[in-house]
Amino acid sequence: MRILITGGAGYIGSVLTEELVNDEHYVVVYDSLYKGHRAAVVDGAAFVQAELSDNSTLRKTLREHRIEAVVHMAADSLVGESIVAPAKYYQNNVAIGLTLLEAMRECSVHGLVFSSTAAVFGEPRKQPIKEDDPTSPTNPYGESKLAFEKALRWYEGAYGLRYVSLRYFNAAGASIRLGECHHPETHLIPLVLQAAHVTNREITIYGNDYPTRDGTCVRDYIHVVDLARAHVLALGVLQERSAMYNLGCGGDGYTVREVVEAASEVTGIDIPIRMGARRVGDPATLIASSDKIKRELNWQPQFQDLSKIIRSAWTWMKQHPNGYKDHSS
Ligand SMILES: NC(=O)c1ccc[n+]([C@@H]2O[C@H](COP(=O)([O-])OP(=O)(O)OC[C@H]3O[C@@H](n4cnc5c(N)ncnc54)[C@H](O)[C@@H]3O)[C@@H](O)[C@H]2O)c1
């Protein structure tokens, strides 16, 4: 298949590109590098450095590369920032997303896999969270992703767009060559590993009075390679129908404290903890039911064990102590 990946120089997009190139698909990475990294663009993929809002480059790319399907990962995705700067989130995640749909319509590209998020659910009433549970985002980031998801449904009805929306829980870990490098970093596992890497830096746990097994928040971590494999399966679905899937590892999830303990064990370094107050809008527990994607697409995660996920991230971090800055551009 001939696939364009928006945001393909980012964390998840680069690992997906690697999987697709290995599977001998033709891949075009479309990324402005506003947050991504040139060194994360996989050899074997074509690369277009451009803004998604650059209509003429986007249309030219879709046409010249004879694109058959798009994976739309480019977005802003910091929950805290979205609360103070909602305009940025509606602009990039909704308005610019719609310009992508228009370009696809004009260039007769009818299939899209969309990077959605657990944040569309807000404060869930029950766990694990299923695809048809009520959506009620508690921040503009989740709202912007939900707004785009809703647009997809109407575009399907009116214009015949086929889409698969994948609602990821917490992506983590690394492939052999590609890992997580965000500025600023807000995700727990890289933050904990950075704390282990830089001696004496402590990790703050926000709240230890939640109704969970040790009082800290419970989250569901999915290895980035397992996540990428789910996209490969989703691209296959586009031939037949549209769909929506939650993506996590399920089970009991892991508390923040368990993540820190597992990281201490993997790294052999005692990671100092500081207790902080709860953050506004942090649900106590977020666990995905991934039964639907397992049942319908036969998706089977290979890295359900937290230690394996952390070990892969740790190996990558030790090889890239300054992230992608160690590499060209
Ligand atoms: N990382 C997670 O745990 C997680 C969880 C749920 C959902 N998601 C979603 O998955 C997607 C990928 O996440 P990630 O962690 O890889 O993000 P990332 O920030 O590492 O990658 C996003 C990429 O998109 C590019 N980009 C953003 N806006 C652009 C624009 N307007 N034009 C061109 N390029 C643009 C950036 O340069 C960057 O390379 C995002 O849509 C995010 O909301 C991520």
Features:
329 residues, three-stranded mixed β-sheet, alpha/beta, binds nicotinamide-adenine-dinucleotide, seven-stranded parallel β-sheet
Helices and strands, with pairings:
Blueprint: E1 2-6, H1 11-22, E2 26-31, E3 46-49, H2 55-64, E4 69-72, H3 79-84, H4 86-106, E5 111-117, H5 140-159, E6 162-168, E7 170-172, H6 188-197, E8 203-206, E9 218-219, E10 221-223, H7 224-237, E11 243-247, E12 254-255, H8 256-267, E13 273-276, E14 285-286, H9 291-297, H10 306-319
Parallel strand pairs: 1-2, 1-4, 2-3, 4-5, 5-6, 6-11, 7-10, 8-13, 9-14
Antiparallel strand pairs: 9-12
Helix pairs in contact: 1-7, 2-4, 4-5, 6-8, 6-10, 8-10
This protein binds nicotinamide-adenine-dinucleotide.
Report on this structure.
With 329 residues, the protein is α/β, with parallel strands linked by helices. Helix content is 38%, strand content 18%. The chain has helices at 11-22, 55-64, 79-84, 86-106, 140-159, 188-197, 224-237, 256-267, 291-297, 306-319, and strands at residues 2-6, 26-31, 46-49, 69-72, 111-117, 162-168, 170-172, 203-206, 218-219, 221-223, 243-247, 254-255, 273-276, 285-286. The strands form 4 sheets. The protein has a 7-stranded parallel β-sheet, sandwiched between helices. Strand 5 (111-117), helix 5 (140-159) and strand 6 (162-168) form a beta-alpha-beta unit. Helix 6 crosses helix 8 (256-267). The longest helix is centred in the first third of the chain and has 21 residues, at 86-106. It is globular and about 55 Å long. Bound molecules: nicotinamide-adenine-dinucleotide. Nicotinamide-adenine-dinucleotide (NAD) is lined by residues 7, 9-13, 31-36, 51-52, 73-75, 77, 92, 96, 115, 117, 168, 170-171, 182.
